[in-house]
Specification:
single chain; 1222 residues; mainly alpha; two-stranded antiparallel ribbon; 62 helices; 68% helix
């Protein structure tokens, strides 16, 4: 049954009389304590009434205290219990400052006196009553003078006495009040005095506590040991000390921990867990100047306890290990010399736990890793004298400590009969990485031991992943030069190979190595294996030696990960690569050799091994030599890694500017982040790379034009990297030489026109390229030209642009995809080009036929995207006109029958919007200008264009619903279109409304609710074209967000019956509980619109896909008829085109656009080889002289319509409501 004092707040919730509320609650109770409580309350009310005092908590408190004080000698236990219970109900309700400090002190004396007498009597007080007194004392201390110890001493001492009471409820309540009292003290003197009382209690109990700590707890003896009350009080006392530690004064805190340390020994006792808890509280709250002197002692005792073996409970070993970590952290922060001195001691005892059960071993491993991570701060203090030697007297403290730590783990490794587990290997890994290069001096024996384990494991079934990573950390720390000094890779005279197992580890873990070492040591070693393979007659042995040679050559990628001597040795490396590239020895190797080199376990996407593997496959399948494919990959790596890792230091770019492959990152970041070069070193490296880039670029371009498409994608990246650091004039000469070679133009940059059939016959007789061959090669050269764009100067850009325009002029479709892509690259990389030739570029693009394949269309849109952004940011009339022409094409594409084309249009619209919003920190004008231009199509356009504009606004609102709030004309303008009778437009607007109500937050939707409901509901009576079902979906979303009562309040009377039907249908689909949950999810999701996995996104997608199936079937039948009738040569009329625009005016297209927008854009070159679809070229042409005349005048008007934004005002919804004629 709940105690009366626990319900005080509930009793006074309406501010009425306490006595009356007690009577209302307990009048029917037959419990004696309740009857006595009501009698006491009635008596107190009578006292107040007789003296005409208010029936308030302070008055009740004063009456009760006076009664207790005046009748303390005559009160029996029952009356005293009832009076104290009444006080515990009243006192918490007394407002602050309502009791003076003097009266509070007197009240404390009365309560202490009363409870003291009852404790000495035979019957005593009940637990609940004593708890009530303790609670009252805790509250009264808050009313006392918190800066006067005399006012507080009696109450605090009483709480301290009750805090070790045997009754759990009383004890816990007293301890809680004790903590609150400590926190309320406002004087250091008061705090010091209170702390001394705690210390005094501890000292009084210490003799018995020391006795208990010396008794070893064994099974069955614990209860006997704690059977005496005074023994239990020791435990309760330790609990009080634990909760008091955070509040103790500095001096007392030091004395307390000195006493606690006396209770700690190497054997487990009944006090061990409590002592550990006190020490933990001490570590967490005490200041460094207090803890450091005592921590050194505690470390020794904890190490002794952990090292005592399996005799102690597991949980105490875990606690001791955790305390050791915390102790060393304190020493590290306060006294580093003590930390380094104690580190071997702690590592030694924790290393013994690594072979324990999994939970303890895992904890010990984690603690050791954290402790050893601090060694990186000390390795810089070591000198040559600290290297291990026989003369230990010459070692510094740091050197001696590190030597001892390494020896501990060396001995721990020796205890394992097989492969060590992940726990000890993980710790050794951290030790390697934090010691760095000096680990060569201290951990040689560990490396040799790990190598022996690896040799034993090779050929077996054991999992060596952790062992490989541990050895790999040694490679990172020491470097390949020192590792290969300890573990040399060699070929003996009997053709046996030594330490070949090390090569895959080197490939994965070498970083910040020397290119010079690779050239001077690894290359000769690889050549020696190749030479030996030629001399061997046995095929199997020959193939093994050849595979080892290729593995050694394959170490180059790892040596290129932030090499330390790039600018000194990159020239020599380039010579080797070019030499091997030009040689054609070792041709026609079997594909089996390629597969033999890399085992499947190393083939992972995104890493060097995987790309390397791909190069092997390409090289062998395409009848190239294995070595040729190998060095083909080396060129790719040379540019991708060496160039970018230096360029990014000098001119950091966004993630998109980094190499496509994540190989470099995977190689380096498996264990640690590698610091980048300084700007000075990066400048030298780039200068050295530039000096040899010309020959490399020439070699790669020759490979590119002679390679098949599968290999060109890798070469493009490498060529682009090298071209970005090569002098633009050199790159231009290379490109012009290719133009001459393939007969596209002369050496002056002039391009030839397509000849007649007679010219083709002459070319054939003279052995020149045929037209088909030239067109194929044109695509290759155009693809190559796109790689030259990044580092190109103006003259090279002009040359590439001339080649682009020449391609558009002399070809119909061939090469257009590559030309569009190259043009978009120019516009992306060189902003000056789009601004200086804006009009010319617009006329060029809009004068071309619209592409018939999706790859070309996306590349075309990429160029239009940049030009559109430029136009919107300009304020000139000509730019505005051009921007409308671009927007014409996008909106018309939104109405295309081809789904991929519509996705491309939605994607480019979203990109334009995102680009404008990214620049909106300066001004929102361009973004609002785009919205205004789209809204301009709502006036005076054909229904076809008008519905396309609505679809465009739908997708923008789907991405950013706030535009409806920042531009309040949008929603009224679109709602006004519901007064038309054009089916296509009505569908589009209803689709917009559905997107709007799905995306807006509930609080924002309330602002538009009246207009939306009033304009949408009239269409609920129209069943044709599924208008009614669309309105139902919209209303369900609104009801879910805003609530049925709010929606009903803004619904016209004539539609109340329809709304009732919607309510019933909604409750029929889901239970009220589910509906409430849905509302909650929606409201919560509104606050996190940008989260990709939020409930709001799911809700919106669900809303987008709720179009009735029957409508889809109608559209499918219409598509079939259109396909059957082959009606691709004209733009559909309004009634026909709704099938392509989609139900709801583009809602499904909005949804698919978002999916497409989130997906990675397709590469223009690869997409150019996909299946092409038919499309009408005339529907998006302007009146440019190169565009064909449309066959339909109305379609021409659509294509060239430039709306007047000033007409928007007539689309605003006025106060007068219009009814729709049915």
């Amino acid at each position: 049954m709940p105690e009366p004092e626990e319900q005080a707040e509930e009793l006074l919730k309406d501010g009425s009389d306490i006595c009356q509320q007690l009577m209302d609650r307990y009048a029917r109770s037959s419990a004696p304590q309740h009857r006595h409580l009501l009698a006491t309350a009635a008596a107190m009310r009578s006292i107040l009434a007789s003296e005409s005092l208010p029936l308030t908590p302070p008055a009740y408190f004063a009456a009760a205290i006076d009664t207790a004080a005046s009748n303390s000698d005559t009160l029996d236990s029952t009356a005293a219990a009832a009076l104290l219970s009444f006080l515990s109900v009243v006192l918490p309700l007394v407002p602050a400052q309502e009791i003076s400090a003097e009266k509070a002190g007197e009240a404390v004396s009365v309560l202490v006196n009363l409870v003291g007498k009852e404790r000495g009597s035979d019957g005593g007080l009940a637990v609940a009553t004593v708890k009530a007194v303790v609670k009252c004392l805790g509250i009264l201390l808050g009313f006392c003078d918190l800066e006067n110890w005399d006012s507080l001493k009696l109450g605090f001492q009483t709480l301290l006495d009750f805090s070790i009471d045997r009754r759990p409820k009383v004890r816990r309540c007293a301890q809680d009040c004790l903590v609150k009292a400590f926190k309320s003290f406002k004087s250091s003197g008061v705090n010091k005095a209170a702390s001394k009382l705690v210390l005094s209690m501890l000292k009084n109990n210490m003799p018995l506590a020391v006795k208990l700590s010396s008794l070893k707890a064994v099974d069955g003896s614990k209860d006997d040991t704690l059977s005496k009350p005074e023994h239990l009080e020791v435990l309760y006392m330790l609990s009080v000390v634990k909760i008091s530690v955070p509040s103790l004064s500095t001096k007392v805190s030091s004395k307390v921990i000195s006493e606690i340390v006396k209770l700690l020994n190497s054997k487990f006792s009944v006090l061990t867990r409590h002592v550990f808890q006190v020490i933990e509280a001490f570590f967490e709250t005490s200041r460094v100047e207090v803890t450091v002197p005592e921590t050194d002692k505690i470390v020794d005792l904890l190490v002794s306890y952990v090292s005592s073996g399996d005799k102690n409970p597991v949980d105490t070993d875990i606690s001791a290990a955790t305390l050791l970590k915390r102790a060393l952290d304190i020493l590290h922060d306060g006294e580093s010399s003590l930390w380094i001195r104690n580190l071997p001691l702690v590592c030694g005892c924790l290393a013994g736990l690594l072979s324990s059960e999994a939970s303890i071993a895992s904890l010990a491993s984690s603690i050791l890793k954290e402790l050893l991570s601090h060694l990186a701060d000390y390795k810089t203090l070591l000198t040559d004298k600290d290297k291990p030697s026989d003369d230990e007297g010459q070692e510094s403290t740091e050197g001696s400590a590190i030597k001892s730590v390494c020896l501990i783990f060396e001995n721990a490794l020796a205890t394992y009969s097989g492969i060590p587990d992940e726990h000890i290997l993980g710790v050794i890994t951290v030790l390697f990485l934090n010691l760095g290069e000096i680990s060569y001096a201290f951990m040689k024996s560990i490396v040799l031991k790990l190598a022996d384990l690896m040799i034993l494991a090779n050929g077996g079934t054991s999992n060596t992943d952790h062992l490989r990573k541990c050895i790999g950390s040694a490679v990172i720390a020491m470097g390949p030069e020192l590792i290969l000094t300890l573990l040399p890779i060699s070929l003996h005279a009997d053709l046996t190979c030594l330490n070949i197992w090390l090569i895959p580890i080197l490939k994965d873990f070498v970083v910040e190595a020397s290119l010079g070492y690779y050239i001077e040591n690894v290359v000769p070693l690889a050549k020696s294996f190749e030479q030996a393979s030629r001399k061997v007659k046995k095929l199997a042995i020959s193939q093994d030696l050849q595979a080892h040679a290729y593995d050694l050559w394959g170490l180059l990628p790892s040596f290129c990960c932030h090499p330390t001597d790039t600018y000194q040795n990159v020239g020599a490396l380039a010579e080797i690569l070019i030499t091997f590239l030009k040689e054609d020895s070792f041709m026609h190797k079997n594909i089996a050799i390629a597969l033999q080199v890399l085992s499947p376990s190393y083939v992972k996407p995104g890493c060097f091994s995987f790309n390397f593997f791909l190069m092997f496959i390409f090289g062998c399948v395409l009848n190239y030599s294995f070595l040729y494919a190998l060095f083909f990959f080396f060129f790719w790596l040379f540019a991708q890694v060496l160039v970018y890792q230096n360029k990014n230091v000098l001119s950091p770019k966004t993630e998109s500017a980094e190499p496509n492959s994540s190989a470099e990152k995977d190689c380096v970041l498996q264990f640690r982040n590698v610091s980048t070069y300084s700007k000075k070193i990066a400048t030298k490296n780039i200068k050295a790379l530039t000096s040899c880039s010309t020959e490399l670029l020439q070699a790669l371009t020759n490979l590119f034009v002679d390679s098949l498409p599968e290999k060109r994608s890798y070469l493009k990246d490498a060529i682009g990297c090298l071209a970005s650091i090569t002098d633009s004039s050199i790159t231009k000469m290379i490109l012009m030489s290719l133009f001459e070679r393939f007969q596209f133009g002369d050496g002056e940059g002039e391009f030839e026109k397509l000849g007649s059939d007679n010219q083709a016959m002459i070319d054939k007789e003279q052995g020149n390229l045929s037209s088909t061959e030239k067109e194929i090669q044109r695509c290759v050269i155009m693809e190559l030209a796109s790689s030259f764009v990044e580092g190109a100067k103006e003259d090279l850009i002009d040359l590439i642009y001339k080649f682009i325009t020449h391609t558009f002029e002399v070809t119909n479709e061939s090469g257009h995809c590559e030309a569009y892509h190259t043009l978009s690259r120019i516009l992306e990389e060189h902003a000056w080009f789009s601004s200086s030739r804006f009009v010319e570029l617009i006329d060029l693009l809009l004068g071309l036929k619209s592409p018939v394949d999706i790859a070309s269309l996306r590349s075309r849109f990429a160029s239009l995207h940049i030009l559109m952004i430029h136009a919107l940011k300009m304020r000139l009339e000509e730019e505005n006109t051009k921007a409308f022409l671009i927007l014409n094409e996008i909106i018309l594409t939104l109405k295309e029958g081809n789904e991929e084309f519509r996705k491309a249009a939605y994607d480019i619209l979203l990109k334009i919007s995102a680009s404008l919003k990214d620049s909106s920190a300066i001004s929102d004008a361009p973004y609002h200008k785009l919205i205004g231009m789209i809204m301009g199509y709502l006036s005076g356009s054909s229904p076809h264009i008008k519905s396309g504009a609505v679809s465009a606004l739908s997708v923008l609102v789907y991405q950013d619903a706030d535009i409806c709030l920042s531009m309040p004309d949008i929603v009224p303008s679109l709602l006004s279109l519901l007064h038309t009778k054009v089916v296509e437009v009505i569908k589009a607007v209803l689709g917009f409304v559905k997107v709007l109500v799905s995306c807006l937050q509930a609080k924002d939707l309330h602002r538009l609710l009246s207009d939306v409901v009033y304009e949408v509901l009239p269409w609920s009576s129209v069943s044709r074209h599924h208008f009614r079902s669309k309105v139902i979906v919209i209303m369900e979303i609104i009801i879910r967000k805003c609530g049925s009562a709010v929606v009903e309040s803004v619904t016209p009377e004539k539609y109340k019956s329809f709304l009732k039907t919607v309510f019933e249908n909604r409750h029929g689909k889901t239970s009220s509980k589910e509906s409430d949950a849905g509302d909650t999810e929606m409201m919560l999701a509104d606050s996190s619109m940008k989260a990709s996995g939020s409930m709001l996104e799911k809700r919106k997608h669900k809303a987008m896909s709720s179009i009735p199936e029957e409508n889809n079937s109608v559209e499918q039948r219409k598509r079939k008829r259109e396909k059957k009738n082959n009606t691709y040569a004209r733009i559909p009329s309004s009634n026909e085109h709704h099938s392509s625009s989609g139900s709801g005016g583009g809602l499904r297209a909005v949804q698919s656009a978002r999916r497409s927008h989130n997906a990675k854009s397709m590469n223009g070159q690869s997409e150019g080889r996909q299946k092409k679809s038919k499309r009408n070229h005339d529907q998006i042409m302007t009146n440019h002289e190169k565009r064909k005349e449309p066959t339909n005048t109305s379609q021409k008007d659509e294509a060239t319509h430039i709306p007047n934004a000033s007409k928007l005002s007539k689309h605003k919804v006025g106060r007068k409501r219009h009814k729709i004629n049915k």
